[in-house]
Amino acid sequence: MALFVQKMAAMSILKKRKILPYTDNTITKEGFFVDHLKIKRQVLCIDLKSFFASVECALRGLDPFKTPLIVADEGRGGGSIVLAVSPYLKQRGMPSRCRLFEVGDTSTMMVARPQMRAYVEVAIRVVDIYLRFVSEEDLHVYSIDEAFLDVTNYLAYYGTDVETLARQIVHAVHEETGVPASCGIGDNMLLSKLALDLFSKQSKDGFATLRYDDVESTLWPIRPLSKIWGIGARMERRLEAMNLYTLGDVARADRRVLHKRFGILGDELYFHAHGIDTSRIRDKHLDLAPMKSVGLGQTLFRDYDVTDIEQIFIEMCDEVAERLRFVRKHAKTVHLGIGYSKSVGGGFSHQRTLDVATDDNDALLAAVRALFAAHGDDAPIRQVFIRATRLVDATAGMQTTLFETPERTTSRNHLWRTIDEVRRRFGKNAVARLSSHQTSGTYLERSGLIGGHRE
Length: 455
Description:
By secondary structure, the chain is of the alpha+beta class. Helices cover 42% and strands 20% of the residues. The chain has helices at residues 3-16, 24-28, 30-36, 51-59, 87-90, 100-103, 116-133, 155-158, 162-177, 189-198, 215-219, 233-240, 247-252, 255-262, 264-273, 306-326, 361-375, 406-426, 443-447; strands at residues 43-48, 69-71, 81-82, 84-85, 98-99, 110-112, 139-143, 146-150, 181-186, 207-210, 293-304, 329-340, 347-358, 381-393, 449-450, 453-454.
């Protein structure tokens, strides 16, 4: 389940209401307990259809329902990921996520190179439209193309019903951006999302509604369970091993058994099987859990040998250190993950504890080098992941090692903070290491990308 919904449901059910996973009261009066949690709201879950492809059609003045268009970077070759296909192609069975070579003959299609900046700009315009109808505290942007709106408190103000208001919002988005949308309506965030995923995309007008009264007849028979938002293939297999094949099976299961097997997620599975989600969009600030790690990873465009990979380590440690300084954290542990080329397979993931918590570029790089020296080999490398964990507040003061003077540490820290500020003001490429201009460097190219793609 999405992290936001997981945490909010858990907090609402187990903390705010002071309800333990199971007590004699909740077990013997399960029916009353379930009904007590059925808090009704009027929630919309709006999805921008084939967002990237629809934006490309809108930029060209084309109808996305009549245009065979795919979004992919042909310059990266047949292995390039197809980010989106137009609704026209979706209706004809083309998957929205595949490799370009899997599409086959593209001579009858339009192949649009991703324009991530344009997509972000349209997404911002869509959010501005939502905010004309609801206040910020009643809007949760779930992803670049999907959002939840709690319109409960606005129906009397607009003097309308939830279905009419939903259509007005979707119509405004289409009229002003050219991007079509579908919408799920429900008594809570969960039901609105399930209405969107399971039914709106099959309806003629793109709208669907799910209420508590619909759960038993509409949701309980659905199988496989992986069709349900938040239940992946792995969870599905674990539930099937318990002879639970439908949402109805989960709803009728013993909560104690689910909790014993899955912990708090077991309780959540049980509640969601009854259509219960007590999370409120207005409580989304409670989702701000303490930051646990900072890091990044990249899949390289070619195989790197032991010599070339050093430049990748340098650039990635610089970026991790910059992110640590931005969030004002120091890290006590560094993780390094390496994925070898398909021709070899395998890889490793190991961590190293630092002598002192730090946000220093050189200290992180030294840890990464030591990890690679201890666990790496001469196999060609295709993936690198570096993550700083066990974070502490940087306000606690600066610590140095026995091998470095405080003056030198302070001087280097000031230098990097100055570089950070220049990059924030003038762009990431405003200052770069000379070594990044080598063919083994990727920083300069990645700095000009948004979401891994050209602007």
